[in-house]
Amino acid sequence: MPAHLHRGKFITFEGLDGCGKSTQAEKLAAVLREQGFQVLVTREPGGTATGEKIRHLLLDTSTAGLSPFAELALMFASRAQHIEEVIQPALAQGQVVLCDRFTDSTEAYQGGGRKLGSEPVLALHRILCGDLKPELTILMDSDVAASVERARRRNRRRDPTGRGENENRFEQESRAFFGRVRNTYLAIAAREPGRVVLVDARGSADETHAQIVKVVRRKLKLAAKTA
Ligand code: TYD
User: Fold this and answer.
1) What digits encode the pLDDT tens for the residues 4-27?
2) Are the C-beta atoms of 97 and 10 separated by less than 8 Å?
3) How far apart are the CA of 57 and the centre of ligand 1, in A?
């Protein structure tokens, strides 16, 4: 472990469906590993065996009539398990943890999209997650229409029936829903400018990657080895 890294670093990726978060998390992981860091890439909902079961329930389009509060509680159930089983142990070992979505997703989707408001989300985060805060959150900003279309195309490609059966339950939501999600994300970035960095995700994956590497170098001084 590099000498300046006493504890691990927790970095989260946020943004609308289809904005390319998981691709960017993998690309950043490759750069950091080349520099000798131990990197764990994980995601929410999911990231543990129990969490993946909860994820299936949450994303399955046949899960009908789930109440917004039940949805909120399941997101946090997955997260509490993930923190205890995966995130905290990795950080304690000094690893860099790159997580595709975290509590900002809940604030944006359940708080904003489902209109539950930020308060219950922040309160549950304090109670259930020990208020664990990422050192850095990369918010990938993209157009609502373009992101949702991209997510749908991706899911159709994975769907052998071609009938959209692989679409996740959230991707069936309206433009208005995703507009509220994006506005909530932007409000979080304005509220916590020291943690959340907005990255323009409208360009190519390589352009976005270059921006992200720059941000990570600047914010976390992780490039000490090659500097
Ligand atoms: P996923 O396919 O992982 O997202 P993406 O399209 O970004 O690759 O699906 C996760 C979905 O779950 C996504 O639509 C956002 C939603 N979600 C919430 O609504 N609240 C949350 O707290 C989290 C973690 C995800």
Assistant:
1) 445 899 999 999 998 899 999 999
2) yes
3) 12
Q: How far is the CA of 167 from the centre of ligand 1 (A)?
A: 12
- The CA-based angle 154-160-161, given to 5 degrees, is 110
Query: Which parts of 163-226 fold into alpha helices (H)?
Result: 175-191, 205-220
For ligand 1, which residues put their CB under 6 angstroms from it?
17-18, 21-22, 44-45, 59, 75, 101, 105-106, 109-110, 151, 168, 170
CB-count burial class (<10 Å; 0-12, 13-18, 19+) for 209? buried
Question: Which residue's C-alpha comes closest to atom 6 of ligand 1?
Answer: 17
pLDDT tens, residue by residue, 149-181: 887 788 777 766 655 556 789 988 988 999 999
